[in-house]
Design goal:
This protein is an alpha/beta fold and about 325 residues long. It folds into two domains: about 15-185, Rossmann fold (3-Layer(aba) Sandwich); about 205-325, CBS-domain, CATH 3.10.580. Helix content is about 45%, strand content about 15%. It is built from 16 helices and twelve strands. Strands 2-1-3-4-5 form a five-stranded parallel β-sheet, sandwiched between helices.
Length: about 325
Amino acid sequence: MIAAAAELAPPRGDLDVARSVLGTEAAGLTALAAALDGRFVRAVDLLAQASGRVVVSGMGKSGHVGRKIAATFASTGTPAFFVHPAEASHGDLGMIVPGDAVLALSNSGETAELADLVAHTRRFALPLVGITARGGSALAQAADVLLLLPDAAEACPMGLAPTTSTTMQMALGDALAVALLTRRGFSESDFRQFHPGGKLGARLKRVAELMHTGDAVPLGTPETPMDRALLLMTEKRFGCLGVIDAAGRLIGIITDGDLRRAMGPDLLSRHVGEVMTGSPRTIGPDALAAEALHAMTARERPITSLFVVDPAGRPAGILHLHDLLRAGLA
């Protein structure tokens, strides 16, 4: 068994290679951050001022990075799409129209397949932002704004496979996307419109979309007899009863734990006000579902039901942990 385990363990050299790759690429990102200057701001200006879409293009590995950048733009409030440069030369140039801005990626700046697309931007005076590592290249000369990648070693031991260079391209695309969304004041609510599915969409739902309202909410007053309170808790199936005052404000709660603590021969003859716990945890209807989950689970004593109150403290609904689970939040 010991010999078999040793055979399965990765050679130490693999870890050394991995750490070297990550260190080399991290150094490239550090150099990229240090090299940013006013040209980055001008690039953001051009992209933000486009009345149409941001068209991203690149060939090979730069193209794969470009697709991701376009997707990040589109999901964060900057309308964008990717055009393959070779397809652009065979009709897809018609997709790029006045009002659009173009972001072209090429590490060498001499990618032949980009030539027709670059010429198209010059012919129709479309803003062109170029990302390249060669300041004297054709792309660099044609671009309205050049974002020059610093001279950084590729992580490939032969110095040939795009590794550090594509990492820098990807990071620079993220920097542009985040700068644009920050300028536009892109909010969590805006973000949710583009991410309705999966756990992310669930986390960005509002409590009001998930809570139970109306007759489903278990409520009583301090004067409610405990035998009636038990019936209400059983009927509403939330394992609790909210207690409201004469103005309708939530002032307390009775939970299964409160019942156990108050258990005695006189329990059913008592009133809710004698058994309740005051100042229950609450949340507002406009809060995110993720905030509700945190309110239920983050403390020493987790809870399974959470009352939702309006600004005046009146119950607007109730949320159960199962509602969050069904929504895909956890």
